[in-house]
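Honest question from a wet-lab person: if I give you the sequences of every part of a complex, can you actually get the arrangement of the whole thing, not just the pieces? Trying it with mine:
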Amino acid sequence: MTRAPRSSARNGSGDAAGPSRRQLLIGGAVAGWGAALALGLDNAARPPSSSDTSSAPPAQDITGLRGSAVVPCHGEHQAGVTVAPQARSTFTSLDLRDEVDADALRRLLRILSSDIERLTSGRAALADMEPELALTPSRLTVTLGFGPRLVQRAGAPVPGWLAPLPAFGVDRLLPQWSDGDLLLEVASDDPVTVTHATRMLLKNARAFATIRWQQHGFRHAYGARPDGATMRNLFGQVDGTVNPAPSTADFDDLVWIREGWLTGGTSLVIRRIAMDLERWDLLGRDGREQAVGRRLADGAPLTGDGEHDEPDFAARDGIGFPVIPMEAHIRRARSADTGQRFYRRAYNYDDPPGPGETSRSGLIFTAFQADPLAQFAPVQRRLDELDLLNEWTTPIGSAVFAIPPGFTADGFVGQTLLGR
Amino acid sequence: MTRAPRSSARNGSGDAAGPSRRQLLIGGAVAGWGAALALGLDNAARPPSSSDTSSAPPAQDITGLRGSAVVPCHGEHQAGVTVAPQARSTFTSLDLRDEVDADALRRLLRILSSDIERLTSGRAALADMEPELALTPSRLTVTLGFGPRLVQRAGAPVPGWLAPLPAFGVDRLLPQWSDGDLLLEVASDDPVTVTHATRMLLKNARAFATIRWQQHGFRHAYGARPDGATMRNLFGQVDGTVNPAPSTADFDDLVWIREGWLTGGTSLVIRRIAMDLERWDLLGRDGREQAVGRRLADGAPLTGDGEHDEPDFAARDGIGFPVIPMEAHIRRARSADTGQRFYRRAYNYDDPPGPGETSRSGLIFTAFQADPLAQFAPVQRRLDELDLLNEWTTPIGSAVFAIPPGFTADGFVGQTLLGR
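Yes, you can. This is the full assembly:
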């Protein structure tokens, strides 16, 4: 774990040739300490503990600006699962170092939980050397997820679904986008805040774990479109219309786990899906609409007038063909079993193109559900068998994480797994 | 150049097994045409010409939402130079294909200018297959820059400054972040808009050029902080305090070129500067403030009270040492020659860390000036000789572009170079 240095040496203000680098490092460290105190980071010098959860207001009043918007981090569930999706999200998957045991995990998760409390409320993290970057939370949330090895290290039985998903024929999975022991999802409407918060968490985690992969995702900027408008992906499609909203009647049944240490938690499937924009470009709007089964303009099913109209899968056109093709994505994704549903919060990605490429874009598909094998896998199996969209999309990464329940001001994320 | 296919074949709605991929491609293309017409993209079927510059309002009224904010693209100067910096900017550098001559360049620039007119006003580009992604310009601007080879291909003399900068000792330049023939800077407050607009421009450019490099940059989200607040970089520093604003008296003299085809244009230096956040972390706040010469909290010079106070470089502390160290960045960057100034619009970058790394972050430094050799180079030479910040920063990319003047509704960007 990296903390601010605590040398007690203190050099002067430098001589004519300037302070040496070494002098700066030593002098600066101590002055930095003073500055941290002056900024009210009074807990910075103490090891993190459950008492580091003061609810002091942010150090700087930026009320009225969008940057000051705060999503409370405490509660039955982790706040990032159901908050209206923020404009930017960075997913970082970590591999635990070999020596990290249950005790070390407990320390790590206490530290991260303390950081989460501070950063999401607009306060600097412990040992935050750039506290000014913490002042614009912009609806910052941090969601932690546990891979199977982390649960093993904690000494608990690993749920059957907490493992790589069954193989699908469409998969072209790369290790650099798959799996991991510990997930940090950091999301905010402000990209600078996401970057800074991610960095603070990784600084405090790096003595315990190394980075396996990191993915940056984005949606439309906050305020650019009407509140609650369904996102569009980079194919131009309305993406996520049929999605159990946190307000719908069976959301709790679909998403929250109700037994054991995961009570109040859920599971998260992350699939990195490359989208071949070049080949998609060769397809006209009619072909695109048939591939999905929805109109591009407004997301309405081909049989309906509005985005949220129920598709009529039985409808036929004048010459007897199905209006929504048999292999359209929305027909293949649908099941008569209402339990085969999950809660999606996808983000777009757009990496710089490689040599000879014009784009390297896609979707960071995410799905929360109580049981990925019972809810996500059957849908994906149907899409794997037949889905027109498969022509233009390729899953290149896949990971499953247990999302532990929320935490309280005197607890930490993962406490139900690791105890005090 | 890629355009929507124009087959006149049209298949039915598919049979029970669904339309073949080929049928979809053909059928879809034609229906896509109909859809484009229905969306009012009435110019889509015609080759671009100077008459493609109707000022029709956006196809969808999103007035009142931030997404509908438009920056007019026409004028004496390209609009992206002086607009208040947007939250996100993507810089793409292209290499011209060998066969591209002056005539082809003229065609390319007419097409791009038409795309710019449409996209910046919230309308779909020509042959835009995702027109819905064009409806939230969010202050979109597109700035074109010309490298030396492009000017040569146009048959014009290349300005002496339009070449790689002189070598500096701190440089560790990589070809994949340096140089190029044609720059597209696409900036908007909405990252989806930046992605879509970049893609549209690249689709239309790819018959003429290949991508050399692409860099994504970001600042705080629009509205997260007070309007006009100086940005912070990922070191946490207030970055860009001393910067001739477009409203200052000598801005025009510093930035705009006043002779030849570049009259009303300028030059752009782009430096990709890696910032070693891990080593920066070892430095306390005092050391950080001495390295720069400004306070981290508010950006005030170490001798002042407010960000915009004039630094007192003569001030000494109680034991006679300079308050602002001799090697502090702001002392070394300053010249008695007021002509050695330029207009900066930096963006942060944050790439996924490589193996063993915790971060891969930095700054996309940009500077506009009438003459980079007379204005930027002397400052960089002083910083190269001595600047404490060099300990933690490394230039890894560098490019210089001529930024042609703005254009009118019946012209195109580059017309003063290429003629009609």
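Two things worth pointing out. Chain B has a mean pLDDT of 85. The first helix of chain B runs from residue 21 to 38.
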